[in-house]
Amino acid sequence: MRWFEGSIPAAIAAAKERRCVFVVVITGSDEQSTQLVCSWETDSVCEAAQDCCVAIRVDAESEACVQFSQIYPVVCVPSSFFIGESGVPLEVIAGSVTEDELQRRISRVTQVNTHTHMHTHFLSHTHTCTHTFSHTHTHLVTPAASSVFVCNVHQDKALSFNLICCYFLFPCRITKKLEERREQKKQAEEELKKEVERRKTGKEMLDFKKKQEEEKTKRLLEERSREKAEERAARERVKQQIALDRADRAARYAQSQVDAETARIAALQARATEQEARRDAAQRERSAFARIQFRLPDGSSFTNQFPSQTCLQEARQFAAQEVGNRYGQFSLATMFPRREFTAEDLQKSLLELELTPSASIVLLPVRHTHTLSHTHTCLVCYPCGDIP
């Protein structure tokens, strides 16, 4: 298929000049669009549409498709529009069709278009076109010098094919309409800008008031928090003072108890010291003399009192005078604790030998002084003194 390379207005002009059907093929990037293009580009379809159609291919995502859809609603992609001289679609194919079906549709559209005379129809409707152009709700877009004309008509009226051509026949009137449209658009933009500014100012005022309220609330909360903190601090100070008073009273009470206990202990210690002094005095008084009991081998005994500073030797001499020569040589010993006095002990005082205030001393004959235990046995077994 030999697609028209120019724009839609140029394709319309070419179709008008050649008195052919104007064909617009809307395609996308899907598989059905690919199949439809393949059907259009087959040799048989190209041959059938070569002399009776001016076909242009339009991408569904392009601006030309958007402008075309404002005149002829595109409800399906892909689609094929066959538009006659009156601007009314003669045939609309939705979706993809086979090669044979496409040839049949082209043949039928060609037969319908053959019964019309585009030139006569154009002359008879020139005045109607002008009148219609001035009274129809239009929307013109001219992005460049060779802008595409877009006409948005009421849905209950058919679009005249010649109305599209009026763009090329009455440029001054179109320019005036464009200027009016630009002025209206400018005013609308200014109104919109003013409205935006007004809303922005209102929003800023609301934000400012809201910020003031938030700051006021924040200050009130801070003041309340400060008051609560001061109240807590005051309560803590009162509690601390009460605790200090209690501690002071407890300390004074404890100190009084300590003082009383100290005085009691001091009194007890004084009384104990006095008693100890009395005991010591009595002890010293008792220790000034030593009452010694001398026990003889025959079981008899005699007692005598000596000054505590008397040497043991003097006590022995006293015992020797008392017993005479009945036992010959003898030594001195104590039973409890068991102790036999030596020659060195004879020179010590009775106080140094711990024989005060009283003690019991046994007279041991020299021949029986081998052991204290044996002597004790002899004294018990042989009270008469006849030890074998």
Automatic annotation (TrEMBL):
Pfam families linked to this entry: UBX, UBX7_N
Chief location of this protein within or outside the cell: endoplasmic reticulum
Cellular localisation: Endoplasmic reticulum membrane
GO cellular component: endoplasmic reticulum membrane
PROSITE patterns: UBX
UniProt entry tagged with the keyword Zinc-finger: no
Superkingdom of source: Eukaryota
GO process annotations (BP): ERAD pathway; response to unfolded protein
Record's bilayer topology term: Peripheral membrane protein
UniProt-listed InterPro entries: Thioredoxin-like_sf, Ubiquitin-like_domsf, UBX_dom
Chain residue ranges for the region called Disordered: 183-232
UniProt xrefs under Gene3D superfamilies: Glutaredoxin, Phosphatidylinositol 3-kinase Catalytic Subunit, Chain A, domain 1
Function: Involved in endoplasmic reticulum-associated protein degradation (ERAD). Acts as a platform to recruit both UBQLN1 and VCP to the ER during ERAD.
Description of how the protein assembles with itself and partners: Directly interacts with VCP. Interacts with UBQLN1. Forms a complex with VCP and UBQLN1.
Name assigned to this protein: UBX domain-containing protein 4
Species whose genome carries this gene: Sinocyclocheilus rhinocerous
